[in-house]
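Please check what follows.
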Amino acid sequence: LLRASLSARYRLGGGVIRDNPYLDAFLFVPFAQTIISLETHDDAIQALSQASKKSSQIDQMADDVFDKIFGADKPDPNKRRTQEVIAKPASVNIRLKALESYLRPALVPHERWSDVERWRFHNRFLKWARAEFLLAKHGDYVRETVDLYPKLGIRQRKKSSFLKTVLVGGSSSDGADMGKKNGRLPLPSSSQLMKAFDMQNWNRTVSPQGGQVRMKKIAKQLGGAAIQFPGSSFCFASLPDETDVSSTSLEDLLELAGGHVAGCGPFNVVCEENEIWEFWTKDYVSTLASYLLDRTEEFGHGETLILDVGAGDGTLAHFLREFMMLEAKRRAQPQGVSSATRKRRPKRSVNPTLHENSLRVPQVLATDDGSWNLEMKADLEMLNVKDSMAKYGKKGHPDEQNRRQLIVLCSWMPMGEDWSADIRSGGADEYILIGESDDGNCGDNWMTWGNPDFFDSAIEGPAGRQNDEIATDMIPPYSMDGYVRTNLDELSKLQFSRFDSRESSTSSTVSFRQKQIDV
């Protein structure tokens, strides 16, 4: 069914795949995907059950003999369990074999590169195939990690697919135990995350070509090449249609198709299963909170509003409030005052917008239009970006221009869309974009980021223009509107995102600040 559905989808588009979920549904593509997911799960469970029965009888026999000869001392179960996780059990191969037995005949029925051409630009299908493959390869590791590292704040769901995890975020104003009230857990630290998912040796910087190394190598081995898109770090494999791919693994086929599975691990599985684009950690959010407090103190003479637009489930805004209050309290304490002395002080009335020295702590609001149907984990106002700026922006409110500072946050702006123009026209003093920058999956490469390599694709004009006219047009839109770009490298190196791999990090944090006009 999947093989026929993908072929029909390709033919109906005349060889061009455009995103059309209704046509996919009409051709039963999602239905076929669901069946394969269920069958893969069932086959793997049966194989594991049979294997465990056989091994348990042999293991019991060996244990009995061992106990009779050497005594009944047994190894530490926690140590053994940790070793099993690190060793990555053989059951992973069982799941992969089960998936490949269903997926490969649908993807490459003739074992030729021409088969891959039918589906490699079908982004919805490729997204599913990537997630399914990573789940089959690393799912057992994730389940063990969830049990071994409860501080990660990841819990398993009891229903849906055989591995569904959910991030449970929350917090209280108590620093050390922040988040344990109301049955919720705090954010993990970067070190906890890297240790749990074995990412200590991953490259934590953005390497433009890092994610394409494996694709280039495979394409070359098959007699083809990986061609780079102009002005971008993205590549696509170019091979003759008759190229034999029968000896190419499913993982390498997905990598050649742009599925980005090479160098990924259990961390990526968690992100795929939970629709996580940016994995918030204590280190990142506390550093961002400190930056925002600095900006608030620099403003000095008025209120500051932090507006998180397209906020998804509201997690970032929720934890920013907590960390800013903690940091503000820390800054308010006089140097050299002991904690015992602080505890003896009488309590003061609490104002949520001020800390003890009357230094302004900004109000944090989160908005989202709900179009992605995410489960809300914090307070959220249902507004799109344009309506958010109309309600909370400063344009049209001249009395607020000088007495209120507006800083807008936006994490993982949808690819090909530009929200920054609405943010600037709404009078933001500064906006901070989080996600892939310049040539990635976030925003428009020219309109949002000002990448000159994408200028021609964004701006159309009459032919034969003079060089000075073209040069004027190539001034980035944010610069034309009076904003200055600053890459916040200290924050970027603390980020973890969905498409990170062993070879490269992918996400960054960039500030666009309105130029100060000298009077």
Residues 2-53+77-274 form one domain.
